[in-house]
Design goal:
Largest sheet: 9 strands, mixed
CATH superfamily of the largest domain: Histidine kinase-like ATPase, C-terminal domain
CATH topology of the largest domain: Heat Shock Protein 90
Strand content: 15-25%
Helix content: 25-40%
Order of helices and strands: HHEEHEEEEEHHEEHHEEEEHEEEH
CATH class of the largest domain: Alpha Beta
Mean pLDDT: 86
Radius of gyration: 23 Å
CATH architecture of the largest domain: 2-Layer Sandwich
Number of domains: 2
Low-confidence stretches: 200-211
Number of strands: 16
Bound molecules: adenosine-5'-diphosphate, magnesium ion
Structural class: alpha+beta
Length: 361
């Protein structure tokens, strides 16, 4: 058989490139919600309302009372790599905002219909404009608006048939959204109020009306209050405070604070809420390490509830390793994990001994 001629290499068109990239940033409805709510938090909102239809596939609408967007910025708002949060690469080291890539809104316009309504301080009226594939579909139109920004994302993945098909189970994403909001806003910014409304729940026609929210995070004062309001009394009652730190440049520099479940807590699955430098992130290595400690220390195989906030020098965290910014990587990760593991273990042992003693008494 004769060798085939090599196929020609072509440059992909910009719109194909953008749609592929968009599908990575916005993987499912909950990823759009995450980006929108992060933007609302970055805009210093104190109240966020979320409306979801059909698990987010039909509609995701986020309204906030943040600083709004300037009229003159609307033309480039949804282009790729346009942001108000970063200008030089070096800024990444000290970045406090959750966004910085200027990709989220752009991505949404490549896989959905996006409409923005916004008003800035001191203006008599706001502006509304719709976007498609990064660009404005029309000139911004003056409209009535209250403080802040409302972003409407309709018909998510309308142009990605395969993605829509894999996302048939709308209630699945709705619970992911509820969980995200509880953690992200309820725990991270306990002073922000949120309401989530889902109209027309999948598979049933109950209409909740506009006044009842499925999830409602209230402004609370302490972390423990926030945990109690999000996860309930029975969780909060069984938590112990933990702390760990290291300040040795040769091994690791970090400070950790949090809550861990005691020996009385019973659950079939692990709940881990992890903040690193105020970002809600995942760290599968740490999660596994903690699970192992609980399994080895407690007689009954109860999975833990863990809330941990780790602060370390910004230059020791790379926030730029994952397109959704979900996983971060840490300098000296193994050392940090080991330290946390041993603090949890000794705390757990002493709580388990007290419990055994109480049971015998
Ligand atoms: P990033 O958050 O990475 O900057 P986005 O695409 O999410 O990128 O948003 C682009 C820009 O749009 C933001 O930098 C911000 O200036 C503005 N923006 C987006 N959402 C809001 C909002 N809810 N309120 C005020 N400004 C917003
Ligand atoms: Mg953003």
């Amino acid at each position: 058989e004769e060798a085939k001629e090599p196929p020609r290499i072509q440059r992909l068109s910009e719109s194909v490139v953008n749609r592929i990239a968009a599908g990575e940033v916005i993987q499912r409805p909950v990823s759009a919600v995450k980006e929108l709510v992060e933007n609302s938090l970055d805009a210093h909102s104190t109240s966020i309302n979320l409306l979801v239809k059909d698990g987010g596939l039909k509609l995701i609408q986020v309204s906030d009372d943040g600083h709004g967007i300037r009229l003159e910025d609307l033309p480039i708002l949804c282009e790729r790599h346009t942001t108000s949060k970063l200008s030089a690469f070096e800024d990444l080291q000290s970045i406090k905002s959750m966004g910085f890539r200027g990709e989220a809104l752009a991505s949404m316009t490549y896989v959905a219909h996006v409409t923005v309504t916004t008003i800035t301080k001191g203006q008599l009226h706001g502006y509304r404009v719709s976007y498609r594939d990064g660009l404005m579909e029309n000139e911004p139109r003056p409209c009535a608006a209250v403080k802040g920004t409302q972003i409407m994302v309709e018909n998510l993945f309308y142009n990605m048939a395969a993605r829509r098909k894999t996302l048939q189970n709308a209630s699945d994403d709705y619970s992911k959204i509820v969980d995200l909001i509880s953690r992200k806003v309820g725990l991270y910014r306990p002073r922000t109020r949120t309401y989530i409304l889902q109209s027309s729940k999948p598979h049933c026609n109950v209409n909740h009306g506009a006044t009842r929210a499925d999830v409602h995070t209230v402004a609370t004062s302490s972390r423990l209050d926030a945990i109690r309001s999000v996860y309930g009394i029975s969780v909060a009652r069984n938590l112990m405070k933990i702390e760990a730190s290291d300040n040795n440049p040769a091994t690791s520099i970090f400070e950790m604070q949090g809550y861990m479940s005691n020996a009385n807590y019973a659950s079939k699955k692990i709940t881990m809420v992890l903040f690193i430098n105020d970002r809600l992130v995942e760290c599968s290595a740490l999660k596994r390490a903690i699970e192992i400690v609980y399994a080895a220390t407690l007689p009954k195989a109860s999975k833990p509830f863990i809330y941990i906030s780790i602060v370390l020098p910004p230059e020791n965290v790379d926030v730029n390793v994952h397109p959704t910014k979900r996983e971060v990587s840490l300098l000296n990760q193994e050392v940090i994990i080991e330290k946390i593991q041993s603090v949890i273990e000794s705390r757990l042992r002493s709580s388990n001994e007290t419990r055994t003693y109480q049971e015998q008494a």
